[in-house]
Design a protein that fits this description.
By secondary structure, the protein is mainly α. The chain has a 3-stranded mixed beta sheet with strand order 1-3-2.
Length: 278
């Protein structure tokens, strides 16, 4: 048993060395880095499994016809028109980058090609829920307002940061021959983006759940779904919500890991300076 623990310790120390940190796993900082990295891996695996289960259920409900015979587009269009949102367009997306969504800035409800034109329960669910987000936006829901403000930062911020990271890395290699200063600076700015991502994940979960509840009412009031279908929608959305929770946990872990990276880099630089002075 002691030999096994020793081997694990050696592997963890080697992982820290490979990552460029002059610290050991038997220190609180080294142990925290390893633990958080392992948790990120575990949550990522869980998230992947949930995504697979969600995909299977989505396919199942996308094969089941809804009682109203409405396509996803017709469902969204009816809800938007009934709530004075005739100016909001319903568009088709077929790329991997954009899925079923609502855009405040482009005034669009985006539905995947297989969702938009199908008369399935899944199409009904997506058309209703995404158009319900537009209704929340119109009504000035505070969580929806917060989500709208955060989307540009989290969407375009990292792309704007890429040139800064590249330039910083070049300067670091040429002038400093180390990863110290620039790495700490890049990590510090990275923390801000992970923080925004974490906050957006929380806000997204709130607004998505609100839109789900609103969608159930809109479907009932419009006579577009039976109670049995609404129960099916709840099961489908429950999986989506679990996925959102996974995203929140992953964002929190990545935020913690970034902060630990900053401290680890600073401590490694301090250890290197001390070793050189001796």
């Amino acid at each position: 048993m002691n030999g096994f623990l020793t081997e694990l310790t050696n592997l963890a120390n080697q992982a820290l060395r490979n990552a460029g940190y002059d610290i050991n796993v038997d220190t609180p900082l080294g142990a925290a880095l390893i633990i958080v990295a392992l948790l990120i891996c575990i949550v990522t695996i869980i998230s992947t499994v949930v995504s697979i289960i969600l995909g299977i259920n989505y396919v199942k409900y996308n094969k089941r016809e809804n009682s109203a015979g409405l396509t996803g587009e017709e469902t969204a269009r009816k809800i938007l028109d009934d709530n004075g949102l005739e100016h909001i367009k319903v568009k088709t997306v077929g790329s991997l980058l954009f899925g079923n969504s609502y855009s405040h800035y482009f005034k669009k409800v985006r539905l995947r090609r297989r969702t938009k034109g199908k008369t399935s329960v899944a199409a009904l669910a997506m058309g209703a829920q995404k158009s319900a987000l537009a209704v929340l936006d119109k009504e000035g829901d505070p969580d929806m307002k917060r989500r709208v403000r955060l989307v540009p930062i989290t969407t375009f911020g990292p792309f704007a940061f890429i040139p800064l990271v590249i330039i910083g890395a070049i300067i670091d290699v040429i002038l400093f021959q180390s990863q110290g200063f620039i790495f700490v600076f890049a990590s510090a700015v990275g923390v801000l983006f992970y923080l925004f991502s974490f906050i957006l994940s929380l806000t997204t979960l709130k607004t998505e759940k609100k839109a789900q509840e609103r969608a159930y009412g809109l479907l009932r009031d419009g006579g577009m779904a039976t109670e049995e279908e609404i129960e099916s929608l709840k099961k489908l959305f429950k999986l989506y919500n679990i996925q959102y929770v996974n995203d929140i946990i992953l964002s929190a872990l990545e935020l913690i890991y970034r902060v630990l990276q900053i401290f680890a880099s600073a401590q490694s630089a301090s250890n290197t300076t001390t070793a050189k002075s001796n």
